[in-house]
Amino acid sequence: GGKDAPENSVEAFRAAGIAGYDGIETDIQFSADHVPVLSGSDSLRPGKATGSDCTPAMKSQKSTWAQLQAVRCIDHRTGTYT
After folding, report:
1. Under 8 Å CB-to-CB from 9, ≥6 apart: which residues?
2. What is the pLDDT of residue 4?
3. pLDDT at 1
4. CA-to-CA distance for 71 and 12, rounded, in angstroms?
5. How far apart are CA 61 and CA 76, in angstroms?
6. If you write DSSP's letter for every residue of 24-56 in order, what string do you get?
7. Rounded to whole angstroms, what are the CA distances from 50 to 8, 46, 53, 54?
8. Angle at 51 between CA 46 and CA 52, to 5 degrees
9. What is the pLDDT of residues 14-52, one digit of tens each?
10. What is the Cβ-side half-sphere exposure of residue 22, based on CA atoms within 13 angstroms?
């Protein structure tokens, strides 16, 4: 269902339930101040080939939750940052 919504998003989890899946797989990283963050990669930076397409560039495990809240990642379905 990865084409239905951004990976690790609430929308993706909701779409999986609507599609009838009985489980989901997600990845969790922890911020520097120990807040769990749904992300498949510790590296959040521009460029789809890097595993994410987010700005500004930062590492989730070296950033605080407050810093991570400023990150915006592109939704490739709409071409906009969310």
Report:
1. 38
2. 66
3. 54
4. 19
5. 25
6. ----EEE-TT--EEE-S-SEE-S-GGGT--EES
7. 16, 7, 7, 10
8. 40
9. 888 999 999 888 888 899 999 998 777 777 766 554 445
10. 0
Q: Is the pLDDT of residue 64 over 90?
A: yes
CB 35 within 8 A of CB 45: no
Q: Report how far residue 46's alpha carbon sits from residue 10's, in angstroms, rounded to the nearest whole number.
A: 22
CA nearest 39: which of 23, 14, 59? 59
What is the value of pTM for the model shown?
Answer: 0.63
For the chain, give the number of residues.
Answer: 82
Q: CA-to-CA distance for 75 and 53, rounded, in angstroms?
A: 9
